[in-house]
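Predict the 3D structure for this chain.
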Amino acid sequence: MKLRDYFNEVICYLKSQKIKVSLLIAFFTLLFLVFNILIQVSANFTQLFNDYTKNYSEARSLFVYKDINYSNIVSDLINREHIAIVYNQDYNMATGYLNIDNKKIYVNIKPLNNIYSPKIISGRKVNDSNEMICPKYLAKNISDLTTISDVINMKDYVDKELNLSYKKEIFRDLYTIDTIKEYSRKIKIVGLYDDGYSTGMFYDCYMLDETLKEIVEEERIVYSDEYLSQVKVEENGLSTSVVVDKLENVDTVSKQLKEDGYIVERQLAIKTELLENINLISKILTVIMFLFISIIFVIYLGNMIKKQKRDIGLYKLFGFTNRQITNIIIFKVLTIIILSIVLEGVIIMFLLEKANLEIDKILNCAYIDLKLFLVPQFIFIVFIIMLIILISRLVINKVCKLEVGNILNENNL
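Done. Predicted structure below.
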C-alpha cells in the first residue's frame, strides 16, 4: 500500500464515524489540555523560582550587627564559609538619576561581579565603562508604584545614550543637607534584565566595578564636625550586610552568625520551603496525570482494536499483510490524536495570553510573563506516538494470528 491509500482509509473512517470521532477529539483535547496546563504551571513556576529567588542577590542577603569594632566585623565575616560578599564602607554602590524624557528616574547602581550578574533578556552584557544594564521596567516614582503606567519600558532605550546625574552632599547638621557638587556623565543602556521580585523593584542598575569606584568617590557623603557631634557617632556596634553564595546556604550562615553573637535579619524573607512544596505538588500532579493518560490510551487502543476486529478480518481476507493492517489502525488513531493536539495547542496559547493579561490587571504590573514551554510538551507527544505504535503492534499482531474465520465469527462489534 502507498501512503495515499492509508490516507484514503483514514478519510473513509472519519466520514463514516463523524460523531464518534468528534467526541474522541473533544475528549483527548480536554485530556491533553489539563495535562499541558499542569506542565506549563510547573515549568513556569520553576523558571520564576530560579530567576527571581535563587539567582537574585537580595534573596541571599543578610543584615548583621554586633557590638564590636567595625573593621573587626568585616574581617571576621569576609573569611567565613559561604559568605561571598561583605558590604563594607569601601564597597562600591551608588545612587543617581537617569534623565529620561525630561524626567529624573531614580536608580541604584550596583557592580557587576562573579557572584551576581543579572540574566540578560534583551541586548547584551556590559563591556565598556560608559555602559549599563537596567531592569526591563524602571519606576517613574518608586515611592508611588501602584500601576503599570507608573513604570517606563526600557526596551525603547536599549543602545541609546542617557544622562546619569548624581551629586556630592554634606550633612551640616541633623536637619541640613547641602549639595557640594553635581555630576553628570553619558551612559549607554546595552542590556535589560527582568527584576520582578526584588525588594528594590524597578531601580537596580549595573555597571562595571571600575566605573562605580569613580562614581562612589565623587558622590561620597561628607559629614561636618557639627553633625558628628550631634549624632554622637560611635565606632562600636555598627552593622553591615553580607551576600551568601547560594540560597540553600542562607539558613546555615544565619544560624552560625547567631551562635557567634551576631544579630541577623534576612534582607528578603522568602518562604523557600512553601515555594518548593508548591512546585513539588505541581510536579507530582503532572506525573499522576501522565500515568493517567497512559492508562487511558492503553484502554482506548485495546477497545478500539477490539471493535475493529471485523475490519481486521476483512483486511486479512482481502490479502492485507499484518504490517499493513497495523499501519491502517495506527493512522486512524494518530489522526485523532494529532487533531486533538493541534486543537489543544491553539487553546493553550489563547489561555496563556489571557492569563498574562489577567496577571497584569490583578497585580498591576507586567513583569511576570508566563511562557509556553515546548520541550516537555514535545517529549509528551513523542511518548504518546511511541505508545500508540507499540500497543497497536502488540494487540493487532495477537489478533492477526487468529484464523480469518475465527476473527469474523467473534461478536465484537
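Confidence is low (pLDDT under 50) at residues 144-148, 196-201, 232-237.
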